[in-house]
Amino acid sequence: MFRLCLLWVLCCVVSWSAPAPASGSGSGIEGQQLVPIIKSLAEQKNDGSYFFAYEGADGSYREEVGIVRRSGKHNDDVVDDDDDYDDAELEISGVYRYIDSQGERVEVSYTADKNGFVPLGTNIPKEITETARNAVQSLEVRAGKKS
After folding, report:
1. If you write DSSP's letter for every residue of 110-121 in order, what string do you get?
2. How far apart are CA 61 and CA 40, in angstroms?
3. In what order do the strands lie in the sheet with 116-121?
4. Which residues are CB-neighbours of 33 under 8 A, at least 6 positions away?
5. 3-class DSSP assignment, residue 59
6. Is residue 99 within 8 Å of 59, Cβ to Cβ?
7. What is the rounded distance in angstroms from the CA atom of residue 110 to the CA atom of residue 64?
8. Residue 95 contacts by C-beta under 8 Å, 6 or more apart in sequence?
9. Is 131 helix (H, G, I), strand (E, B) or coil?
10. DSSP 132
């Protein structure tokens, strides 16, 4: 708890000491223009699942879905509006894209769950994606959840 409080205080100090952008200049980071958001969607469900997506005027885009998977026995002794389960896991999938400094479109899709993060993208070597995918499959097999 002490470390969490210390981290929070440090973040506050850094944010207070950071210079603010010039008023009325319309710029973010020095020399860069802010990109208008042309589309934005977000949904949060009571079980913790969520969805969000946004698109920038410069062609950048991001979309992510998080689904809470519940397993284990339901605890009927607890009277509550929220369902209580022995175990809950978050499974995430998403995609993002942007135009890099050379004008090339970069797109990455990904999945993440209790077994790890698996990226697949135009800027990610296939070896990295395959290594991540194999590691996740190995963990699933060890857990008796062969896909």
Report:
1. EEEETTEEEEEE
2. 10
3. 37-44, 50-56, 61-74, 85-99, 105-113, 116-121
4. 26, 27
5. coil
6. yes
7. 9
8. 61, 62, 63, 64, 107, 108, 109, 110
9. helix
10. H
Q: In angstroms, what is the C-alpha Rg of the chain?
A: 21
Cα–Cα dist 118/127, whole Å? 11
Q: Looking at residue 21, what DSSP letter applies?
A: P
Whole-structure pTM value: 0.62
Q: Which amino acid is at 92?
A: I
User: In tens digits, what is the pLDDT along the chain, a chain of 147 residues?
Assistant: 344 443 444 444 444 444 444 445 555 567 788 999 999 999 999 999 999 999 999 999 999 999 998 876 555 544 454 555 568 899 999 999 999 989 999 999 999 998 888 888 988 888 888 888 888 888 777 777 544
Structure tokens at 46: 């009571």
Structure tokens at 146: 């062969």
Strands 116-121 and 37-44: unpaired
Asked whether 68 and 47 are in contact (CB, 8 A), the reply is: yes
Place of tokens 């990455």: 108
Distance in angstroms (rounded) separating the CA atoms of residues 108 and 73: 36
